[in-house]
Write a structure and sequence with these properties.
The complex is a heterodimer of chains A (77) and B (365). Chain A has 77 residues and is α+β, with helices and mostly antiparallel strands. Helices cover 42% and strands 25% of the residues of chain A. In chain A, strands 2-1-3-4 form a four-stranded mixed beta sheet. Chain B is mainly alpha-helical and 365 residues long. Classes of the chains: A alpha+beta (77), B mainly alpha (365).
């Protein structure tokens, strides 16, 4: 599974990354987590507010910090 | 393109990316509504007791002399601190709930079809209620351009969003009274509307970075979540935890400094450098304000101290607006999407608006 976290690197983006990492650990899934900090790249994905989470090229959330339960749900589907 | 360096943001009191991610929606029960109302009544009763309590505490319990320096200082602190914190908590809670109705996506949709003049007015007003922080400025800008929001309207939003917010208004109201809060609200909105309108008239679309215009074809992903009232209340609660949790230190420190000044520093200390007869103090205040990057919570207690010591209102307003609206870090971020010429115009136009406001108030008050 490939997870991308989009955001310029502010507090909320870091919060999002921690939540995603925790969710991946809780689920025991093999996943690579990477960060997108370039706005141009985000725009190509259609992301215009941050933070955003992209799992396997599908945008799961835009403009807010997700809850861990929510992320775990995305991971299991 | 190199990744932008992380800067301190989202700490400026605005909920940048608020949690709207409640999947299971719950209904609000009558009991909860009742408890909420009871809480509001309790808030009101306590709030009204703060002034008598501060007098009782300083002059009876501590036995300090009324009118003396230490007595005045302690009474000021014991009254102002809980007062401002209570106001802040209530307003942040309410604004947090209101903000759950206004996402950046929705604001973008409202503004996309608007023509310039009406658009500028709406953009400035939406700037107050739409969650925003300087780190989300670039994606927001891209989203607006992509949705076809006129450039001037986009700028009206970008100017109003950081400058006119509930924290600034609550602190101004709590520390300086409703008149100054109203003046700040009105002039802040006016600067945002007019500056945005002027930038729109100048037709500077070609001064946006080229790659930005190329993404016009990209489709914006919008994930709307259905929120129940319970979710919105939750939103308010999270906003309080987030914002009040961050700014209380500034507020208390600011009031502490204010209290000391209130009791000890002579009244006319600032008048000689920031008084209304010193014309150059307004442009100087704007220039000094640009490299300073602070949030409303940090700057308003300072503002209060300056005003109390004889600084002129116009000069102080100009200083405050410049610190909040023209920040260097935001310029660095916007440089990603704007050519330097357009940033210069932005600073010039907003700066002139602030200058005008400063001179105007020094002149009429």
């Amino acid at each position: 599974m490939e997870i991308k976290i989009c955001g310029p690197g502010c507090a909320n983006c870091e919060k999002t990354q921690k939540i995603v990492e925790a969710a991946v650990a809780a689920k025991g899934i093999e996943a690579t987590i990477s960060k997108i900090t370039d706005f141009q790249e985000m725009a190509k994905l259609g992301i215009f507010s941050t933070p955003a989470v992209v799992i396997d090229d599908e945008v799961k959330c835009v403009g807010n910090v997700p809850r861990q339960a929510e992320v775990e749900e995305w991971l299991s589907s | 393109m190199e990744p932008i360096k992380p800067i301190k943001c989202c700490g400026d009191g605005t909920t940048c990316c608020s949690d709207s991610s409640v999947t299971k929606s719950k209904k609000i029960t009558a009991l909860q509504v009742g408890l909420g109302l009871l809480g509001l009544v309790a808030w009101y009763v306590v709030y009204n007791q703060l002034l008598p309590f501060s007098h009782f505490f300083s002059y009876h319990l501590l036995g300090l002399e009324k009118g003396g320096h230490p007595g005045e200082t302690i009474q000021f602190f014991v009254y102002e601190t809980p007062k401002v914190m209570m106001l802040l908590t209530l307003i942040v809670f309410i604004v947090g709930m209101i903000r759950s109705f206004f996402t950046q996506e929705r604001t973008r949709k409202y503004l996309a079809g608007k023509r310039e003049t009406a658009g500028n007015v709406m953009a400035a007003l939406l700037g107050i209620v739409t969650p925003f922080c300087s780190c989300s400025a670039v994606p927001l800008f891209l989203g607006f351009v992509q949705a076809g929001v006129p450039l001037g309207v986009t700028f009206s939003f970008l100017i109003a969003a950081p400058m006119v917010n509930e924290i600034a208004l609550v602190l101004l109201f709590g520390l300086l009274g409703w008149k100054i809060a109203a003046i700040y609200l009105t002039t802040g909105l006016a600067v945002a509307m007019v500056a945005g309108w002027v930038i729109g008239r100048l037709k500077l679309e070609s001064w946006i970075e080229d790659w930005v215009t190329e993404i016009r074809s990209a489709e914006a992903v919008v994930i709307e979540k259905k929120l129940s009232w319970a979710d919105r209340v939750n939103h308010g609660r999270e906003a309080v935890r987030d914002i009040v949790g961050k700014v209380w230190v500034y507020v208390i420190a600011g009031i502490g400094v204010g209290a000391a000044i209130h009791g000890y520093v002579p009244e006319t200390f600032m008048a000689s450098i920031m008084g209304k007869d010193v014309w150059w103090s307004v442009p100087a205040a704007v220039l000094v304000g640009i490299p300073m990057y602070s949030n409303a919570a940090g700057i308003i207690p300072v503002v209060e101290a300056l005003l109390g010591k004889g600084a002129a209102l116009g000069t102080v307003l100009a200083f405050m607006m410049s610190v909040i609206a023209l920040s260097l870090p935001e310029m660095v971020i916007l440089r990603k999407v704007l050519k330097p010429k357009l940033i210069a115009v932005f600073i010039g136009v907003v700066g002139s608006g602030i200058l005008f406001t400063g001179f105007l108030f020094n002149f009429i008050i």
